Amino acid sequence: MDTVADKQKREDSLNGVGCSRKRKEDARFIQGKGNYTDDIKMPGMLFADMVRSPYAHARIISINTEKALALPGVHAVLTAADLKPLNLHWMPTLAGDVQAVLADEKVHFQYQEVALVVADDRYIAADAIDLVEVEYEELPVLVDPHKAMTAEAPILREDLVGKMEGAHSTRKHDNHIFNWQAGEKDATDRVFDAAEVTVSQDMVYHRVHPCPLETCGCVASMDKINGKLTVYLTSQAPHVVRTVVSMLSGLPESSVRIVSPDIGGGFGNKVGIYPGYVASIVASIVLGVPVKWVEDRMENISTTAFARDYHMRGELAADSNGIIKALRVNVLADHGAFDSCADPSKFPAGFMHICTGSYDIPVAHLNVDGVYTNKAPGGVSYRCSFRVTEAVYVIERTMDVLAQKLGIDKAEIRRRNFVKKEQFPYTTCLGFELDSGDYHTALEKVLDAVDYKGLRREQEEKRANGELMGIGLVTFTEVVGAGPSKSCDILGVGMFDSAEIRVHPTGSVMARMGTITQGQGHQTTYAQIIASELGITSDEIAIEEGDTDTSPYGLGTYGSRSTPVGGAATAVAARKIKAKAKKIAAHLLEVSEDDLEWEVDRFKVKGVPGQEKTMKDIAWAAYNNVPEGMEPGLEAVDYYDPPNFTFPFGAYLCVVDIDKDTGVTDIRRFYALDDCGTRINPMIIDGQIHGGLTEGYAVAMGQEMPYDEEGNLLGNTLMDYFLPTFVETPKWETDYTVTPSPHHPIGAKGVAESPHVGSIPTFTSAMVDAFAHLDVTHMDMPHNAYRVWKQIKALGLLDN
Amino acid sequence: MAKQAVSFTLNGKTVDVLVEPRELLIHTLRENLNQTGAHIGCETSHCGVCTVDIDGESVKSCTLLTVQTAGSDVKSVEGMATADGLHVIQQAFVDEHGLQCGFCTPGMLMRAYRFLQENPDPNDEEIRWGMSGNLCRCTGYQNIINAVRTAAKNLQQA
Ligand code: FES
Ligand code: FES
């Protein structure tokens, strides 16, 4: 027998790490048999709908629920007054602040939750919310974060007046939330003072919303007989929700079951705990029947989880060759009315301190102030890991500005400043230890693929003809996989993640994880990890997540943490099983463990052909013939606390052509090279990258949440809020290099967010580049046709 | 509000429902008939996740009153696969990785089902325009375009 061919055949049949296995989850979705929260129906279930504030800042004078309650089919109308006796009218946020569940005396943003109506069906509930009479007294509104800490600013959070010790720092003003700094201020300032060249660029990373196609919602069901509360909920972090619900309700965690069923996209929108969830839970407890609450699209965009709203200044000090000597970043962060970010507790500005990027920067200082305004709360990570998008934007933009000032090509200035391959692991001056990287190779591969020099020549010709062509380039480094529990926790729970694997007697596998898929394909990829580790075909490996009654505790899926943390737990749990399997194999083959070697799916006695036991043989034996003193069974649990983050990176290039008369931009080409370490399923990786690039395109080119001076949100339907369609979405070209993470059990780094993080500054870089010969150094997003046209007009480029 | 009796055909079977005149078809399908394949993403005709096929046209079922469908032939994603197996378009979506979270998928499939009858041999540009009433937040569309192209090829060979 040709053993090499045989081995290869067995290897291939595993459908393990590295193959583009078709997705296990597809069968139900393509047949309309997904099970999303709004698909759940329970006997006696009622529908809830929210009465919301039309004003951004107002005192509530009175709420009259009589007419609504008189409408046939209405079962209850809850207000803050009803929640107060239960002490549930406010709830803690994940950021150390509190948020009103139902407005208590005051509303702080337009569309804030004021009352919950519960009725027989959604039509009656919608009728009833119109019948709830709320009398308001309008108050002065604060919209501009730059005015938040002025003497004239209206004070928003009366509940915090005089409490100057905030969750993260002393507060300087009643509208101040925190100040957070990283790096060395004085040393950085000294370098700037003495530098040959300095640049400074202000930029607004505008407010956007993740806007998954499925909105947020829940079905809360209190079983009064058994004392058990079950909540089906669109959550990216069901175990954390269970802990919070238990703390809020006083029910033991064992009496609370949170189930995240199928989720129609998350992108950070579904990490937080929202007033609608809490109010629905209370309604179910009060009424004793299941209560469903599902946002409509306007509620989704207006209230649950905006992202960004970072007003930044990036500054670089360098020598005349463009070698960077220092970085200074200042941020004013608009958090809206309540600080409900979902960052690890110790990091109120997330991982903004990854803002040194891919570059060898000797010294840096980062200063972030968070403020309250009369806007919706949030500040979530929209397809990124805790403010990494903002960090990458500020460094990549400022790099371009420096290149422009010095007349150095933007590829060349990056080459000169990259952390070199041999410097890894590299500790940045702001404290991250970059695990691995090869930035030069990635950049050169992209430049070759697109014929960068040719593009520059073409651009020169176009410029001579008065045409606008831009080339954007970004070389980003991300930090994902939060994270080591010594530095990362949410509400005091360390940010480990978990896997529990059981091998059945016949050798099939059931595995459960603490994470939860929202389209990433966990049922497919976790099985591939186990298949490669244990030599069992992935088709016989079932993956379950999302039910807190059955899966081990985990912190959930966001910040690209599933593969770096959950995937690591899976590999380690599988290795625990393999270690036991080896003992059983030695027992069965009557040799010592040292005489055994592993090959694909079996242990073999070294040098004795034919003496071997497959994992299937071993699984069977685990239930009837184990060595003396060993307990039967074949299963393992691992709670993986990562030793470090992982640092995926990439090089992206974009070519745009701008119509001078209309400002309409054509994305001619977008080339994305990603390095996410070991690649588990290339098909899924490509899909994740396409999706992330498209979301990046949306943010850079069109999404925005504009507020007028009264705090009215101008654009909370899909008519106004830009979700790219088939037509405008560019065609993406993807590429990769592989630089495994040295500390991850299988070397994987996580990928889903890189394309979002990396593409946004690439678009801006390309747009600005189209005008760079006219001394434009920066243009704020979104780069929609109107704004671009205004830029063209301001430069006097219009023909008439 | 007085309810009205409405009959229509759903995936080849006659259904009789009693609905308020204001009830939207998407709610009748999902709440009344337990066909939860079509989803709700906006209720304003923008996203297309509620797309079904009515009398030979793609229709966003969040924008149609159930009473308007009286006597119509309605097809939804639940009716695509037959005893012989998956529809060619469904298989193409799996093969080309044309879905991630799956929320848009039933609407995409129903639109592709009609689009490929309107244009059995589309190029990529025609696919983009023909499918543009359906949004997806996960895939960036590229693999959906591949899936529709593959489905077109396989349908012609079938
Ligand atoms: S729900 Fe019908 S188009 Fe969005
Ligand atoms: S697959 Fe998630 S919206 Fe299309």
Automatic annotation (TrEMBL), chain A:
EC number per UniProt: 1.2.5.3
Record has Cytoplasm as a keyword: no
SMART domains registered for this protein in UniProt: Ald_Xan_dh_C
Keyword list, A-Z: Copper, Metal-binding, Molybdenum, Oxidoreductase
InterPro entries: Ald_Oxase/Xan_DH_a/b (IPR000674), Ald_Oxase/Xan_DH_a/b_sf (IPR036856), Ald_Oxase/xanthine_DH-like (IPR016208), AldOxase/xan_DH_MoCoBD1 (IPR008274), AldOxase/xan_DH_MoCoBD2 (IPR046867), AldOxase/xan_DH_Mopterin-bd_sf (IPR037165), CO_Mo_DH_lsu (IPR012780)
Reactions this protein catalyses: CO + a quinone + H2O = a quinol + CO2
Boundaries of every Aldehyde oxidase/xanthine dehydrogenase a/b hammerhead domain copy: 31-140
Necessary cofactors: Mo-molybdopterin cytosine dinucleotide; Cu(+)
Similarity comment: Belongs to the xanthine dehydrogenase family.
Main function: Catalyzes the oxidation of carbon monoxide to carbon dioxide.
Full protein name: Carbon monoxide dehydrogenase large chain
Organism: Brumicola pallidula DSM 14239 = ACAM 615
UniProtKB/TrEMBL annotation, chain B:
Keyword Phosphoprotein part of the UniProt annotation: no
InterPro entries listed in its UniProt record: 2Fe-2S-bd, 2Fe-2S-bd_dom_sf, 2Fe-2S_ferredoxin-like_sf, 2Fe-2S_ferredoxin-type, Beta-grasp_dom_sf, Diverse_Oxidoreductases
MF terms in GO: 2 iron, 2 sulfur cluster binding; metal ion binding; oxidoreductase activity
Residue stretches making up the 2Fe-2S ferredoxin-type domain: 4-80
Alphabetical list of PROSITE patterns matching this protein: 2FE2S_FER_2 (PS51085)
Domain of life according to the entry: Bacteria
Alphabetical UniProt keywords: 2Fe-2S, Iron, Iron-sulfur, Metal-binding, Oxidoreductase, Ubiquinone
Protein name per the record: Carbon monoxide dehydrogenase, small subunit
Organism, scientific name: Brumicola pallidula DSM 14239 = ACAM 615
